[in-house]
Amino acid sequence: MASVFKRKYTKIVDGKKVKKQSQCWYIKYRDADGIEQRVKGYKDKTATRQKAAELEKEAELARTGVVDRYKEHRQTALTEHLKNFKQYLLDKGDTQDYARLTHNRVKAILTDCKFTFIGDVQPSRVQRYIAERKQKGLSIKSCNYYLTAAKTFFNWMVADKRIDENPLVHLKGQNAQKDIRRQRRALTPDETDVLLTATLKGPKHHNLTGKQRYMLYTLALSTGFRASELHSLTWRSLILSESQPSVTVMAGYAKNGKEATLPLRKDVAELFRQWFEDSDFSLDDKVFPKFNKSKGAAMLRKDLESVGIPYQDEGGRYADFHAQRHTFISNVGRSGATVKETQTLARHSTSALTLDVYSHIGLYDERRAIEKLPQLHNIDNKKSERNRAVAQRTGTDDKPLESTQNRSKKLTPKLTPFLTPTAYPACNRSSAIGNEQDNFQENGNNDNCLNSEKLDRENNRLATVGTGADEMGRGGFEPPTHGFSVRCSTN
Q1: Between 20 and 30 A from 184 (CA), which of 46, 82, 131, 390?
Q2: Which residues touch 41 (CB under 8 Å, ≥6 apart)?
Q3: Where are the alpha helices (DSSP H) in 178-310?
Q4: What domain range includes position 283?
């Protein structure tokens, strides 16, 4: 039930506190959302009561959906709402750069589409604006940023009880992977070493000395921080203790809007600790005060070209400043870290983004991974070991024994010892291969050759095998099931 009242207050008159009350009457009632409101009325109490009844009636109708509870906001220009939205972003801790960029993107859509009030907003016109920007050369990724900014603005209006629903809620961004304008690559370990070594001794450019750029690149390659994040760091952001060194980027400067603390390698922490002690820094100073984050790519390009490292490779991939983040994430993956560990250090929302976009591996990494796979299990291990042992004695190039027997008739005579006497310098052709029936008779007088009379059948000795003199030229050398070959003595 609405009520009317006069506000009471205390005023000092002639040094004394005097209680006063307002000349106008005020109205207290609950709106459609059940929130208590206080509205200034009139000097006339009756007129104020009439207005209170009207407000209460409107609230009741709004609760039942009969009256537009957002009437006041619908009559307010969108540009005014947009100003309030920008202030909201700043109040919740976003940076000036982010708030300004988001504001400008939304303003561009509102202006080009000629949206004055909330009732003018049409999703199809916004979709047409995005399509036209794409036709003019804007990348899909950038088009998605514009759409995201507009949807975020209207989501805020819903949350702030200015409208009942987001008019752009059903619009979806396009697949940015289909239109990658700038592919990046990871630097190899050799390229990284060459770059850092040369930069440390390099001349000053882009307002940074060689030592300052060396420290900047080292921290970028050790943390994967973006240019804006590195620019925001102060010496308070670095914990350089020997036990658990780390570096923290504040939420307002992180892309995902979350504060992040990453561990530092102890050698990197020691490098920065020594730099802090040798320089005239204070804890509130920025670590890289003269670093221009918008010129990071141009700065790195000059250092890369000075040592002969291509800024853009044959595949069209760039080694710009952001590529150092790709290098960091790829190196984490190569170190043997799990997918979850890599995703966490990369500060990505999904592992797919980490693996598909930021992880770069080459043939060497693939081969190393393959070599780490366990050896496949052979069901017939004993048979496999026996075949390998036989293959070494028979010279079948590690082929299984059964395979050699099945294919022996297909061997050409050129592969037989009979036609390769140079491999048996102490044996003649006829004594190289024989059988138990006629080999002794044909070669009995040859002291340089082994024959069946000199060999027995024990497992630990060699035995002569053969196909017979008539079959030598036609079939060549065929080992029996024992797999033993003829050995010749050189005595």
Answers
A1: 131
A2: 4, 24, 25, 26, 27, 47, 48, 51, 52
A3: 189-200, 210-223, 227-232, 266-278, 296-306
A4: 189-369
Token duo for residue 178? 């289909």
* Co-location of 214 and 332 in the same domain: yes
In a domain, 184, yes or no: no
Give the number of other CB atoms < 10 A from CB of residue 210. Answer: 16
Nearest CA to 20 out of 9, 32, 7, 35 is that of 9
Integer Cα distance of 405 and 483 in angstroms: 9
Q: Residue holding tokens 């609950």? A: 30
The CA distance from 407 to 402, in Å, is: 9
In a domain, 359, yes or no: yes
What pLDDT was estimated at residue 333? 82
Please count the residues of the chain.
491
Q: Which of 179, 200, 215 is the last residue before a domain boundary? A: 179
Instruction: Specify whether the CB–CB gap between 432 and 455 falls below 8 A.
Output: no
pTM of structure: 0.51
Judged against a pLDDT cut of 80, whether residue 101 lies above it is answered with yes
**Residue for token pair 């050896």:** 375
Vertex 486, ends 480 and 491: CA angle to 5°? 165
Question: Which of 427, 418, 421 is closest to 451 using CA atoms?
Answer: 427
Structural domain count of the chain? 4
